[in-house]
Amino acid sequence: MLRLHTFGGCFVARDGVRLEPLSGQRKSLALLAMIASSGDRGISRETVVAYLWPNSDETRARTSLKQLVHSLRRQSENATLLSSSQPLRLNRDVITSDVEDFRDAVRRADYGPAAALYAGPFLDGFYLRGVDEFERWAASERAPLARDFARALEGLAVAAAERGEFDGSIEWWRRLASVEPLSGRAATGLMLALDAAGERAAALHHAREFQKLVHEVVTVSDEEIVDAMRLLFERAKTVAEPSGASAFAALLAGKVDAAGLRVGVTISGGNVTAERFAELLE
Hints:
Layout: E1 2-5, E2 11-14, E3 17-18, H1 20-23, H2 26-38, H3 45-52, H4 58-76, E4 95-97, H5 98-107, H6 111-117, H7 132-162, H8 166-179, H9 184-196, H10 200-214, H11 223-238, H12 245-252, E5 257-258, E6 261-262, H13 274-281
Parallel strand pairs: 1-4
Antiparallel strand pairs: 1-2, 2-3, 5-6
Helix pairs in contact: 3-4, 5-6, 6-7, 7-8, 7-12, 8-9, 9-10, 10-13, 11-13
């Protein structure tokens, strides 16, 4: 079975072993990535031609695509690697891809497998020299996939908190904070998890580190959001349950309203400083 890897790079493996000849063919890999990312809906030949051969006339570009498809089938030693119909799709009985599996897992809210599949940004470090249209396409795919990854990490963090597994919740929030270092949402989630686990000093330390990181770009303090955050902390601390697990998870999941806002609102870096967060913890 062939496997296309698109997170953190781009290459093809057979039964877990990287296929160097095929993995060295950048245009072949670009075509596979475009088809894989299109999923079940497939991708038209016209779209592929527009992105991979933007400077060629239609006849020449279509000939190039036909030759590339033939080369892929030959190099993979499988004539049924791609569908022969319009639009183009991967034959999942022959080749699978991490990007398709990732999107399927996110759709099912199966966040554990989704997080495991995301080995890095989509097509990270992979490019086609002189083909800016393909680069723009890759960037347009990369951003929503990164957001889905962040959503998966947050889902895992909240689920761990619901189970009272605050150490696990902390680790998921740390991972989210590492990939989105300027995210106020991630900073707040990690601080809440640390505080819920009884690690107030660590929560304050993270607040100060976050402040150092974003102080150059913070220009506005949204008092309404700060008020919502204050209420979040108060409710998380005064809940009747000793661990505060259910209230903590509910607040982060956005199930409780405060100050006219959903408490689970995403707070972008640049609105609320870590210094203000730290004040809420005191």
